[in-house]
């Protein structure tokens, strides 16, 4: 399946990419702000304020289109619901994703299956090591796609690189999607995968002293929800949660109170056009998600809307690292999650990537910001960042 899709048409030169990465690395360190969040702004000083990053702008003009292969678990679906909202969801699914570049070296890829119903495919990335049976910490990864799309092939290059840089085993979970499987099917899959990995830690050579959940976009929401359920059930398996641009709520009224008006983003014509294309989590897109994903479930359930995590459980949540980006409808929601965790006494780090737009990690290896975030996360998982205690 991996060889069937080749969507990349533009990439920066290696020289330009490495130069940008070095400039990103020169930003000031984390500092605690008035919200008790350890915050760090990441910008390329060569890019003017309130402007789209030059690599990002170039990619918008010259790219190969969506990278949306059918996932293994969804390939088994025979009958699809076909309401007007369902059809809108399928159109979103077909437009999602980008193909990135593999920056890892010596990482092996295998596949395992859970023993539940359904048997979930999990792709495992293992770093190069002298003893293949060495126990390593685990990262359980959930791909983005608004719970209606996405694929483990889209985030695979980020996962491979994390396996190498963090020297951990990364478990990339293939889970069921709406509208074929509305909530809570996808969440149940993701939570079951965490528990199956823990239960089979010996066979999987996992060191349970470090178990992180990770996700981007809707996958970030799922990572937060899995950490919540882990704490609610009293398991306390999850030691770290890290994510990029998560959605915090699917409640329309709550979102209206959190989200920014477009005027607050300082858009120019280029950034405004890109923002207008990121409408899955606002406006009509949000309505579609509520219909096809939330369905009859309670939208205020913390497993759907983590902003609703009660205070007593929020105080028990694992430490967090949350990346947000400048021209993103979910920017205020991601930061609010970091703020809520800090308010509850949880060690919370957040980074804002200026000049970037939603789903920039899909272009891993093309946008240096993705590698920068992965490098930061790897350090955070093992050595800690400013203000972090292990």
From TrEMBL:
Gene3D superfamilies: alpha/beta hydrolase. It comes from Levilactobacillus bambusae. The keyword Nucleotide-binding does not apply. Signal peptide: none annotated. Residues 139-361 form the Alpha/beta hydrolase fold-3 domain. SUPFAM superfamilies: alpha/beta-Hydrolases. InterPro entries: AB_hydrolase_3, AB_hydrolase_fold, GDXG_lipolytic_enzyme. This is Lipase. One of its GO terms (molecular function) is hydrolase activity. Keywords: Hydrolase. Coiled coil: none annotated.
């Amino acid at each position: 399946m991996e060889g069937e899709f080749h969507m990349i048409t533009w990439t920066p030169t290696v020289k330009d990419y490495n130069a940008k990465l070095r400039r990103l690395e020169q930003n000031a360190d984390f500092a605690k702000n008035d919200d008790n969040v350890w915050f760090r702004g990441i910008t390329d000083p060569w890019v003017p304020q309130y402007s789209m990053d030059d690599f990002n702008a170039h990619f918008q003009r010259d790219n190969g289109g969506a990278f949306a292969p059918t996932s293994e678990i969804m390939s088994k679906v025979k009958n699809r619901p076909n309401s007007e909202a369902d059809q809108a969801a399928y159109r979103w699914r077909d437009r999602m994703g980008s193909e990135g570049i593999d920056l890892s070296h010596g990482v092996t890829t295998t596949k395992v299956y859970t023993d539940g119903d359904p048997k979930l495919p999990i792709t495992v990335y293992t770093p190069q090591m002298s003893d293949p049976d060495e126990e390593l910490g685990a990262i359980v990864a959930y791909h983005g796609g608004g719970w209606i799309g996405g694929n483990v092939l889209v985030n695979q290059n980020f996962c491979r690189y994390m396996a190498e840089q963090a020297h951990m085993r990364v478990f990339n979970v293939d889970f069921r999607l709406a509208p074929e499987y509305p909530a809570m099917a996808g969440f149940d899959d993701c939570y079951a995968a965490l528990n199956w990995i823990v239960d089979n830690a010996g066979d999987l050579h996992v060191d349970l002293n470090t178990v992180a959940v990770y996700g981007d976009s809707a996958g970030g929401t799922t990572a937060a929800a899995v950490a919540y359920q882990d704490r609610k059930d009293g398991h306390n398996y999850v030691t770290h949660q890290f994510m990029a641009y998560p959605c915090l709520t699917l409640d329309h009224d709550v979102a209206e109170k959190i989200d920014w008006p477009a005027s607050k983003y300082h858009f120019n014509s280029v950034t405004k056009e890109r923002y207008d294309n990121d409408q899955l989590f606002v406006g009509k897109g949000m309505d579609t998600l509520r219909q096809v994903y939330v369905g009859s479930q309670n939208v205020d359930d913390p497993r759907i809307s983590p902003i609703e995590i009660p205070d007593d459980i929020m105080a028990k949540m694992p430490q967090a690292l949350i990346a947000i980006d400048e021209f993103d409808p979910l920017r205020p929601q991601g930061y609010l999650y970091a703020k809520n965790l800090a308010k509850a006494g949880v060690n919370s780090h957040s980074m804002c990537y200026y000049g970037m737009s939603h789903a920039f990690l899909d272009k891993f290896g093309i946008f240096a910001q993705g590698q920068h975030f992965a490098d930061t996360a790897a350090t955070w998982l093992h050595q800690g960042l400013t203000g972090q205690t292990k």
